[in-house]
């Protein structure tokens, strides 16, 4: 059996030790271990190492290295258990070693999915315009359990959701002032759905955001869209020209009475 001939601190990592053994052929480097593993197994000069004890030492050292890698990964921001596991699996670390490292992370409170979920929700609410459904889906993708997601999402107050949806809607309405009221309403509803807001919140937001324009504002938007259609169909004449413009404006959500008024006005110009 090999005997430990020398133990020395590594130059570039003072927490790891190089183990040299002598099996009768002279001193040679055998392996390295973390300081905790060195102490745990009582490694010292003159100690004999059989296959079983060597396997156990190296297994515990792999756990320690994996644990340290996880700590470094967690140092940038909070992570869920699923994220940490995925990070370690990419490094092709054996599953039993990952399991032991994960257990230690929980033991020393470096991992806590409940705290992670709460922190993630608060960050998204404070820094993004995501609705509850989208945040819920993201928590699920990060491996948070369903019951814990329900508990966490209860913190996202209805009033806060409504306020955020109205703010999104107001900005959107200003940017899309040249759309018809009907199209604007449809686009805003689709936008809020994509951002993860439920219909109950969307309906309240749509009531608060001014999407139903006064006739003069609607006519202004209609005229803008109408001029684009006139250029597009400029080679058409008479009935066919009027039909194409009318069809195009109707598809853009403008009411028939305003479309007819617009068509009458451009015919008077001609």
Automatic annotation (TrEMBL):
Family membership: Belongs to the RecX family.
Entries under InterPro entries matching the protein: RecX_HTH_1st, RecX_HTH_2nd, RecX_HTH_3rd, Regulatory_RecX, WH-like_DNA-bd_sf
Organism, as annotated: Mesobacillus zeae
Keyword Lyase: no
Protein role: Modulates RecA activity.
Protein name listed in UniProt: Regulatory protein RecX
Every RecX first three-helical domain range: 67-105
Subcellular location: Cytoplasm
A Pfam family the protein falls into: RecX_HTH1
Example GO biological process: regulation of DNA repair
Assigned keywords, A-Z: Cytoplasm
């Amino acid at each position: 059996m090999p005997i430990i001939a020398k133990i020395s601190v590594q130059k570039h990592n003072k927490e790891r030790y190089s183990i040299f053994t002598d099996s009768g052929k002279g001193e040679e480097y055998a392996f390295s271990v973390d300081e905790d593993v060195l102490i745990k197994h009582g490694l010292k000069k003159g100690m004999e190492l059989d296959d079983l004890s060597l396997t156990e030492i190296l297994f515990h050292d792999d756990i320690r290295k994996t644990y340290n890698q996880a700590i470094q990964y967690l140092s940038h921001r909070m992570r869920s258990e699923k994220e940490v596991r995925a990070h370690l699996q990419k490094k092709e670390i054996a599953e039993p070693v990952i399991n032991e490292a994960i257990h230690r992370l929980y033991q020393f409170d470096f991992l806590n999915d409940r705290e992670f979920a709460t922190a993630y929700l608060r960050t998204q609410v404070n820094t993004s315009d995501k609705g509850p459904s989208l945040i819920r889906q993201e928590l699920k993708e990060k491996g948070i359990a369903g019951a814990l997601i329900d508990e966490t999402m209860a913190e996202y107050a209805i009033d806060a959701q409504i306020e955020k949806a109205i703010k999104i809607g107001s900005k959107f309405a200003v940017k899309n002032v040249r759309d018809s009221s009907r199209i604007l309403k449809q686009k805003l509803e689709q936008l809020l759905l994509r951002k993860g807001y439920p219909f109950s919140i969307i309906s309240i937001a749509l009531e608060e955001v001014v999407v139903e324009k006064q006739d003069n504002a609607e006519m202004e938007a209609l005229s803008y869209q109408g001029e684009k259609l006139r250029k597009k169909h400029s080679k058409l004449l008479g009935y066919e020209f009027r039909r194409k413009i009318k069809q195009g404006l109707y598809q853009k959500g403008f009411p028939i009475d305003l479309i007819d008024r617009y068509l009458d006005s451009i015919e008077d110009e001609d």
